[in-house]
Design a protein that fits this description.
By secondary structure, the chain is of the alpha+beta class. The strands form three sheets. It has a nine-stranded mixed sheet with strand order 5-6-4-13-14-15-12-16-17, with helices on both faces. Strands 1, 2, 8, 9, 10, 11, 18 and 19 form an eight-stranded mixed sheet that branches. A two-stranded antiparallel ribbon has the order 3-7. Helix 18 packs across helix 19. The chain has a single domain, classed as FAD/NAD(P)-binding domain (3-Layer(bba) Sandwich), CATH 3.50.50.60. The N and C termini lie far apart (84 Å). The chain is 37% helix and 23% strand. A hairpin with a 5-residue loop joins strand 10 and strand 11.
């Protein structure tokens, strides 16, 4: 009898064990362990999205997986990007000259408004103790557009006249006067041929930002203060498979444990992994990924930390891009604050590698080719032969060539003061459009499955500078119902005072928002004017959740007049 009971018990245990194992293999974990959101990649995009979600829905379980041992080591790292508060003040590639000779200034206001949202987002984090010490990640650094040659001077003047019509650029100044230029950019004027026709625009409200430090502070706050948030470094996502119930089985390799794999179920997945986003999006199998290919472009910079040299240049000065070059290759001589030390960087000089990440694999490009995107990629190569020529020319540049390029912006530069560093990798988007075939896409693009459960960010510039706006756009796609709720709207209004409104065309609101963020972020670019000091204080109280009935009424009354 005992033998029969023992045999029955063993059989029952085996059946239970087999059922449990089968469940784990098919679903990854039990339903109780299903997380609400998995984020892939420990960069600025995941940091911003995670910060939004912890404020909007703190009861959600959110897991972040980063392949490297630390976050912000790839594209978000301060050494791997331009560090510009990309506000379209100085980036002339955003204002192309048209065939009739006019300059199109329609795009900059959209980018400028997005950066104003970034400033509001960062201000909220400072006021609520999520971030600390604004000078560790953002500092006033005037933005300058600098050109030489009659045609280029004519272009810049038209650009200035067009942009000056918008209240966003009230503070923009323009000059061709060498004496004024020697005040704005002394290092760029010293030693320059006095007969050369030069011009510049100057925007005092410009900033230099360390997006790596922003990322580290945001993720550290999530990891330390929120029990529903889990950070896993040394963790490489290797599989994305759809479960029968609509969730996603995410397979992760523990790189610190011999690559041992485990899985987790997620209701939604966001891929914010820089260059690795495209291969992972393809791994998910969603049809929306089929139309994309990617072409990697790397960059190098000349850098100096010599205090005497750095002291001669205190702005971010952007020039005109070479014909055929991608937007990220616009030459610029930048005052930066990196690792707590002021430095000057000049570049970028394009490099080519088949890697999609700085710490990626040489097989990345080849592994991303599919039957859907190979032809569009070939079409782009044929249609953009000037880009191919540009990249070839950059790759074969000598040390002398790079130094001569620097001297065009810093005539008295001495070679011993500068060293060449390798910055990050970027992946240009190639999109298959039915009517045009393969098209090279500049900028960033949010891609999401039809049901919004799988999403990714592709592309590069202006990227980090506008990440809060980009992630708002993402949430519109993947959380439409929640974003339409009064609860989420109210919280977003605390984080971003201008949320739901348009700053463009609203001078008073522009000044109020800039004065608010300038005071919180310890910048000195904008002061309250007229009667908006009360509104600025209302923004601060709203962010702190300390609105009185009077300030709330004043804020609502003011905001109601600001919708356009």
């Amino acid at each position: 009898m005992k033998k029969h009971l023992t045999a029955a018990l063993c059989m029952n245990l085996c059946m239970v064990s087999s059922y449990t194992l089968a469940s784990e293999n098919s679903a990854g974990t039990s339903d109780d362990d299903t997380v609400d959101v998995v984020m892939v990649g420990g960069g600025i995009m995941s940091a911003v999205l995670g910060t939004y979600l912890e404020e909007l829905q703190p009861d959600w379980k959110v897991n972040l997986y980063e392949r490297l041992d630390h976050v912000a080591e790839e594209s978000s790292n301060g050494w791997n990007n331009a560090g510009t508060g990309h506000s379209a003040f100085c980036e002339m590639n955003y204002t192309p000259q048209l065939e009739d000779g006019s300059v199109d200034v329609s795009r900059p206001p959209k980018i400028t408004e997005a950066f104003e949202i970034t400033r509001q987002f960062l201000s909220y984090q400072i006021l609520n103790g999520v971030m600390h010490d604004p000078s560790s990640f953002i500092n006033n650094t005037p933005h300058v557009s600098f050109v030489w040659g009659d045609d280029n001077v004519d272009f810049l003047h038209k650009r200035y006249e067009g942009m000056k019509q918008n209240a966003f650029y009230d503070a923009m100044e323009y000059t061709e006067d060498p004496d004024v230029l020697r005040q704005w950019v002394p290092a760029m004027m010293a030693g320059r041929d006095s007969s050369q026709h030069v011009a510049a625009t100057y925007m005092k409200p410009g900033t230099d930002a360390n997006w790596g430090e922003v990322t580290r502070q945001l993720i550290a706050a999530l990891d330390q203060n929120h029990e529903n948030f889990t950070l896993s470094t040394g963790s490489e996502v290797r599989g994305l498979d759809r479960n029968d119930d609509g969730t996603w089985k995410v397979t992760i390799a523990d790189l610190d444990n011999g690559g041992r794999e485990h899985s987790v179920n997620a209701r939604r997945v966001f891929i914010g992994a820089g260059g690795a986003a495209l291969p992972l999006l393809q791994e998910s199998g969603i049809p929306e990924a089929e139309q994309y290919a990617g072409f990697p472009v790397g960059g190098q910079f000349l850098v100096t930390s010599n205090p005497e040299v750095v002291a001669r240049h205190d702005v971010k000065a952007y020039g005109l891009a070479a014909e055929g070059s991608p937007p990220m290759s616009v030459p610029h001589l930048d005052r930066r604050m990196l690792d707590g030390q002021p430095r000057l960087l000049f570049g970028p000089f394009a490099t080519f590698s088949t890697r999609f990440l700085k710490e990626g694999s040489w097989t990345d490009l080849f592994g991303s080719l599919t039957m859907h995107n190979t032809v569009p990629m070939m079409q782009v190569g044929m249609d953009n032969f000037n880009l191919v020529q540009y990249l070839v020319g950059q790759v074969v540049q000598s040390e002398d060539d790079r130094f001569e390029a620097l001297k065009a912006y810093f005539p008295e530069a001495k070679r011993d003061d500068w060293e060449l560093i390798t910055a990050g990798q970027r992946v240009q988007i190639i999109k298959d459009k039915d009517d045009k075939g393969g098209v090279l896409q500049f900028g960033t693009e949010v891609v999401a499955s039809e049901d919004g459960t799988m999403s990714a960010l592709l592309g590069a510039s202006p990227g980090a500078s506008t990440s809060p706006t980009i992630m708002l756009g993402l949430m519109e796609k993947i959380f439409p119902q929640e974003l339409a709720s009064e609860e989420w709207k109210a919280k977003l209004n605390r984080i971003i005072p201008s949320y739901g409104q348009t700053l463009n065309g609203n001078p008073e609101m522009i000044n109020a928002v800039r004065a608010y963020t300038s005071s919180v972020l310890e910048l000195d670019d904008t002061q309250p004017r007229g009667d908006n000091a009360q509104r600025v204080e209302a923004f601060r109280q709203r962010a702190l959740g300390q609105e009185t009935g009077q300030t709330q009424a004043h804020s609502q009354e003011s905001d109601s007049t600001d919708h356009v």
